[in-house]
Amino acid sequence: MEAEDPLFIMYTSGSTGKPKGIVHTIGGYLLYSYITFKYLFNYTDGDVFFSTADLGWMAAHTFTVYGSLANGCSIVLFEGTPTHPNPGHIWHIIDKWRVNIFNTAPTLIRSLMKFGDQYVKQYSRQTLKVLGTAGEPINPEAWLWFWEVVGDRRCPVVDNYWQTETGGPMLTCLPGATPMKPGSATLPFFGVIPAILDSEGRELEGPAVGQLVMKNPWPGIARTIDGKHQLYEMTYFHKFRGYYCTGDGVQRDADGYY
């Protein structure tokens, strides 16, 4: 296959409610999933990866399938309800299969928090080295519980922002390298150049709140919307000419963290 041949089409509605068939290609997507998995989770040979992401989501395509397997990583696949037969089931899986990297969503973290710490602490979790969270902004309270209770304050929490269209993380903490901040996706990944625009398309400097855009392409960027290339151009590149428009709002603080 050629690098720019289509690899898969993933349907996403975003906020429109009308599914769009996002097309990712073989070379760029595979490179981006490989390299983001490797550096986001500090992958080393022999690590075991476990993500609760549904395989129909981009997070599972990139990390549970393509990125992990491209790195030669062993993966744990789980089908069921995380709280059945009890709210400690996730931590049981981690101990049983000696999981090193655990990736989940803020929604699950918050749902397990409400059952208390005892379901976590009855398992050792000593094999864990990195915790990941993505899918939506994480509130600081959930971040701190993930860090203090699940990771025993020794496992870096990798909070990362991305979209079906980006193919992989764009803003992310790097474990052991980026000073963490509860509730923040921290800094851009290698080669990613974000910017914040106001409603008129003017670029904002320093601490700011506005529209999140990207100033240059990256390997994992979606190449088109299946059968609707004009819609692709209009959706992502027309509102702010010269930028990839995420459609998301963002805040940048005094430390440059997003």
TrEMBL record:
Leading EC class: ligase
BP terms from Gene Ontology: acetyl-CoA biosynthetic process
AMP-dependent synthetase/ligase domain segment(s): 2-218
GO MF entries: acetate-CoA ligase activity
InterPro entries the UniProt entry points to: AMP-binding, AMP-binding_CS, AMP-dep_synth/lig_dom, ANL_N_sf
One protein family per Pfam: AMP-binding
EC number: 6.2.1.1
Name the record gives this protein: acetate--CoA ligase
Origin species: Medioppia subpectinata
Lineage, uppermost ranks: Eukaryota, Metazoa, Ecdysozoa, Arthropoda, Chelicerata
